[in-house]
Write a structure and sequence with these properties.
Order of helices and strands: EEEEHEHHHH
Largest sheet: 3 strands, antiparallel
Strand order of the largest sheet: 2-3-4
Strand content: 5-15%
Shape: elongated
Distance between the termini: 26 Å
Mean pLDDT: 94
Helix content: 40-55%
């Protein structure tokens, strides 16, 4: 289980001069932008979708590889990072959605929504579920890219 959902991206210029961004850890998906700043902003959206698609497919999220000067780190939106942490903690626990719902004293439909990357869930609810699964979320604030 990754302890961060910040992934390095590879950025190259294509034949038209656009900046193309890919995430080698996922092995699929790409985005681009006319400027480097635009491409990196689009990269955050792509990373959100890569994480969400991996979760919807029921697969394990890849461990982020090391960043480098040529591979900047891309930070996903906070909501998807929290959902990914819950998803992975739930997978590691090896319990059913129904059992997690019982542990949280909520309906199973609520747990399905919590694990749905497309559904907005309050951070407090995810934090509570993570704690029941023996994990906790921490927030790091840094300089914006």
């Amino acid at each position: 289980m990754p302890d961060t959902y910040t992934y390095p991206a590879e950025v190259e210029r294509d034949d038209d001069g656009r900046y193309v961004v890919v995430f080698p850890d996922f092995g699929w998906g790409a985005t681009d932008g006319a400027t480097l700043d635009e491409a990196l902003a689009e990269a955050s959206d792509l990373l959100r979708e890569l994480i969400a698609a991996t979760m919807r497919e029921g697969k394990d999220l890849p461990q982020p590889s090391r960043p480098s000067k040529r591979r900047p780190l891309i930070v996903p939106p906070v909501q998807i990072a929290l959902k990914a942490a819950l998803y992975e903690a739930w997978q590691q626990a090896g319990i059913s959605r129904r059992r997690l719902a019982r542990n949280l004293d909520v309906a199973e439909s609520e747990v399905r929504r919590m694990l749905d990357p497309g559904h907005a869930t309050k951070a407090g609810a995810i934090d509570r579920a993570l704690r029941r699964l023996g994990k906790q979320a921490a927030v790091t604030v840094g300089k914006a890219a």
